Amino acid sequence: MGLLQGAGIRIVTPSSRLAMPEISIGLYPDVGASWFLARLPGKLGLFLGLTGAPINARDAIDLGLADRFFGEHQQEGLIEELLQLNWQEQTDLQLNSLLKAEQHRAYAELPEAQWLPRRQVIDALLDVADPAAAWRALEGLRQHNDPLLADAGQRLQEGCPLTAHLVWEQIRRARHLSLAQVFQMEYSMSLNCCRHPEFSEGVRARLLDKDNHPRWHWPDVAQVPAAVVEAHFVKVWEGRHPLADLT
User: Fold this and answer.
1) Beta-carbon neighbour count of residue 173 at 10 Å?
2) Enoyl-CoA hydratase/isomerase domain: which residues (predicted)?
């Protein structure tokens, strides 16, 4: 999802599933996710970061994480129409008219929204003071009669407790940062994740050995030391920030 947010025109389809599931491998929602998760309505950004729950095309459009919706069958036709445009005159107007017309044809295929209709429940659950309380609240969803919420609770429960702390802190900080400052912060976080054991263990369990049983160094969210969390935001180089020239 992070790379998509940097695109000039973000397109989704009926089968699109977008997520930031880094909690499953002991990393954190990166590639600028601190920026856009912190700016979603209510507690939805925190919820998506903590659970790694996927959003569909309607969610992406409604939350401002995608610009256009097309049907799966429209790709080849759209490419042909793009080739017919006069790219020398009024390019933006022509392109917008084309994309608007194509989206109108596909709108009946747009799936139902998943998360905005559940925002009230999510906001209430995450109206808590710290990551441990947020974890307990979401973990309790595993027995919920709403399958989407139950799945989100299960995803969190299988995730990395340290990552929950990082998600909480990165979103808290990002609300007051520029986009350039967010990337600078995430640069530090990425380097520090490589220096701590959770990320390598998550990669081992999910991607290499694929036993899906990571042995987290801190398996209890309440036992993650505050100093360890803070250490992920500290620079590990001398002199100027490598991304100091970002504006």
Assistant:
1) 15
2) 1-233
